[in-house]
Every structure is written in structure tokens, then in C-alpha cells.
Amino acid sequence: MAITIDPMEAVFETNLPFPNKRQGKVRDIYDLPADPKAGDPRLLIIATDRISAFDVVLPNPIVGKGALLTQLSKRWFRFIEAKGLCKTQTVSGDDLADRIPAHVMQSSVVARKCEVVPIECVVRGYLDGSGWKEYQQTQEVCGVKLPAGLQRGGELPEPIFTPATKAEQGEHDENITFERACEVVGTDVMTRLRDTSMAIYKAARAHARERGIILADTKFEFGWPVDANGKRTSDELILIDEALTPDSSRYWPLDAWKPGGAQQSFDKQFVRDYLQELVDQGKWDKTAPGPELPDSVVAGTIARYREAIEKLWGEVKVN
Fold first, then answer.
1. 152 and 72, same structural domain?
2. One domain, residues 122 and 215
3. CATH number for the domain including 252?
């Protein structure tokens, strides 16, 4: 089934008639009225067209990025729930259609309000990024001992679970051991998170590989549903934030995969590479304000997102 999006103006910053607006690097979040049927508190999570690199929000948007990544997340949420792997944050927003512009709604998820578990759940099936850097120094990743002689971009003997702390905005997450994560949130919680994250990753990796894409690694976030007073309503953990997008995962084309170095990718590495060239030339120092992206980089970035989504789920239709 194709993913359909409408032509749109850029969703760079929103100002909607809902309370308690919070703004991250790429997301705007609002509190919503409670679900009219279930009475549960809800959030509106908007994936804007802002793009950040090196922890700096760049001045011009990638038009359509938010809508594409939101629709991809929603498709993965349905996949995860259909397989009985985990419940997700998505709830009905039918009552909001006349209060949110259509071009913003297609970049939005109406979500169950949750208490966020303060641990990033990272699963790696291939060795790259911070994992590769740590492996070179210690032959381990987050306390997981790995065989000698592995290459950058190589497939691991088995996927590994490598948690990280959730950093404050503007700071970097810190890789930690499973044992340290258990100290933060408890062994029972971390065991459930590890098992659920591994199950989701393995199912998604198989789906992607059948379609010519390697899901090298990904990260998940989970939370406990809460009531209007912020009190947990159960001990059940549900999947929140985004799911398996190129912003939270490494996707590589299978036919171009070659262990031993950097891989071709479907994520925003294309933007990082352009910016790194500016840094190397002394034209930018990785501090705000960031440089404006040329049209060719904007077009190349959205094309990579679109190609990944079309391979995973079929044609992206623009009405």
C-alpha cells in the first residue's frame, strides 16, 4: 500500500491553539484535550521540516521531511502492533481534524501521554557509529564483548542491545552497560525493554532485507501511560516517540553493502557530509547559526528519505 502525502508548505515552526508547547530540535509538542471516548490524556507530536546536524538546527527546512517520516513511523507502528510485539503511543485524533491544518496533521502523531523511561533502547545488528569507535578501543560495545577482527559496517554474529542515557537537549546521549541501565530503572523493566526492542528490531530487519535494505541499527523509546495527574495507570510499557525512521536508524542499500568502511545510507549523513566539508574548509565551526543548505543538498536529502520509504512500503504518492 502506498504512502500518500499532499503538496504542502514547509512546516518549520507551528503555533497551534493548544497549551504547553514544547519545542525540540525537530519536533513541536502540545498537550491536547483528553480522548473524548477513553478519557486518556493526549499529546500532539509534530515532526517539523527542521533539520539538525551536529546539534545545530539549520536555517532552511527540508520541505516534506516531517510528513514522510511521520507516515513511515505510523506504518511501522501498525506493523509492530499487528505482529503483537508491543503496544504503541498512537491513539485517535478524529476529533481534531478541524483544529489542525491538513499540512500539519500529516506531519503529526496524536499520542497517548506517558511517563518516559529515561533510557534509549538501541539495537545493533551491524557495527558502525559510536559502536564502531568503542569496539576499536575495547573490543566491546556497552559492555558486550565482541569477537576480534570485525570490520566497520560488518554484520555482528547476533544483534546486541546497547542502551544509552537520554541526554538533555543540546547534549549527547551516553552509551552505558545493561547493568548500569538496570541500576537506573530496575532489572525487570530493562529486561522487558531489551526483549521487546530485540523482537521489534529482528522483525523489522527481516522486513527491510526482503526489500533490499539493511536495517543496521535503530533506537527505541518507551513509556508508561499516565492519567491527567501524571500518575501511571499501569506497568505496561508502550513504544513512544518515532519508530524505525532514517532519523533514528541506519538504513543501507543491500546491493551496495561492503564491510570495511563507511556505507551508502538513506539517512541525513548526506547533510552531515556537506557540512563537514564546510568545517574542513574553515567556513563553519559547528556552532549556531548553521549555514543554509543549497538546493542540491535539500533535494538530495528528501530523495534519500523517499527512496527508503518506497523500498520499505511501496510508492509515495503526492496528491
1. no
2. yes
3. 3.30.470.20
DSSP string, 242-275: --S-TTTEEEEEGGG--SSS----SSTHHHHHHH
Mean pLDDT across 218-237? 95
Query: Which residues share a beta bridge with 155?
Result: 126
Is residue 48 a contact partner of residue 60, using CB atoms and an 8 Å limit?
A: no
Place 318 in a pLDDT band, splitting at 50, 70 and 90: low
Determine the pLDDT at residue 39. 87
Give the pLDDT of residue 319.
45
Give the strand pairing for 238-240 and 56-57: unpaired
User: Residue 174 has what pLDDT?
Assistant: 85
Task: Take residue 183 and report the three cell numbers written for it.
Answer: 541500576
Q: Which is more confidently placed, 172 or 135?
A: 135
Burial track 208-236 (b if 16+ CB lie within 10 A, e otherwise): beeeebbbbbbbbbbbbbbeeeeeeeeee
Instruction: For residue 219, report the phi and psi dihedrals to the nearest 5 degrees.
Output: -130, 145
Does pLDDT of 170 surpass 50?
Answer: no
Mark out the alpha helices in the chain (DSSP H runs): 65-82, 102-105, 129-138, 178-185, 187-210, 269-280, 295-313
Give CA–CA dist 280/221, Å, rounded. Answer: 34
End-to-end CA distance of the chain: 15
Same domain, 105 and 23: yes
Domain limits for position 41:
3-114
Total residues belonging to the chain: 319
Instruction: Give the pLDDT confidence of 101-116 residue by residue, as tens digits.
Output: 988 999 999 999 999 9
